[in-house]
C-alpha cells in the first residue's frame, strides 16, 4: 500500500500543504520551485501593471507552462514563443509518442494543477 505524506511548499510567498506518495517529496518540492519561479516571473511582468487575483495569476502560469510544453513538443522556435516566454523551448528527443499521448500527458498535468488551484481556492476562503 502506498503511503501518502504531506509536503509544505511555498509559491508566491504563500505556504501550501500538498500531498504526494512517500518518496516523491523531493520531486514535488522541485516542481513547486519551478512553479514559484514562473508565478513570480509573470507577476513581475504583468501583475504589477494589472490587478490580478491569485487564481488568475496561477491560471496564467498554467497556460504559460502548457504553452512551453506544447512548443517543446512541436519544436517551435523561440521567436514564435509568446512575449512572456523569451527563453528557448527545451530540446526533447523524439520518444515515439504520438499526439494522443502528448494530449494525455498535458491533460494529466492540467488535472493536477486544477486540483491544486481548487485546494488553494478552498484554503483561501
Keywords:
single chain; 125 residues; alpha+beta; two-stranded antiparallel sheet; 3 helices; 2 strands
What can you tell me about this protein's structure?
This protein is an alpha+beta fold and 125 residues long. The protein has one domain. 56% of the residues lie in helices and 13% in strands. A hairpin with a 2-residue loop joins β1 and β2. The longest helix has 26 residues. The chain is globular and about 50 Å long. About 12% of the residues have low confidence.
Low-confidence stretches: 81-95
Q: Per the principal axes of the C-alpha atoms, what is the gross shape? A: globular
Radius of gyration: 16 Å
Structural class: alpha+beta
For the largest beta sheet, what order do the strands appear in spatially? 1-2
Number of strands: 2
Mean pLDDT: 75
Strand content: 5-15%
Q: What about the largest sheet? A: 2 strands, antiparallel
Q: Level of helix content? A: 55-70%
In sequence order, what are the helices and strands, one letter per element? Answer: EEHHH
Amino acid at each position: 500500500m502506498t503511503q501518502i505524506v504531506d509536503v509544505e511548499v511555498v509559491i508566491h510567498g504563500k505556504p501550501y500543504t500538498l500531498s504526494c506518495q512517500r518518496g516523491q517529496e523531493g520531486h514535488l518540492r522541485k516542481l513547486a520551485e519551478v512553479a514559484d519561479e514562473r508565478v513570480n516571473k509573470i507577476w513581475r511582468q504583468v501583475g504589477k501593471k494589472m490587478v490580478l487575483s491569485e487564481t488568475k495569476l496561477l491560471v496564467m502560469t498554467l497556460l504559460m507552462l502548457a504553452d512551453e510544453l506544447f512548443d517543446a513538443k512541436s519544436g517551435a522556435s523561440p521567436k514564435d514563443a509568446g512575449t512572456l516566454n523569451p527563453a528557448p523551448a527545451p530540446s526533447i528527443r523524439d520518444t515515439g509518442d504520438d499526439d494522443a499521448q502528448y494530449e494525455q500527458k498535458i491533460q494529466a498535468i492540467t488535472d493536477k494543477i486544477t486540483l491544486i488551484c481548487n485546494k488553494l481556492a478552498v484554503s483561501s476562503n
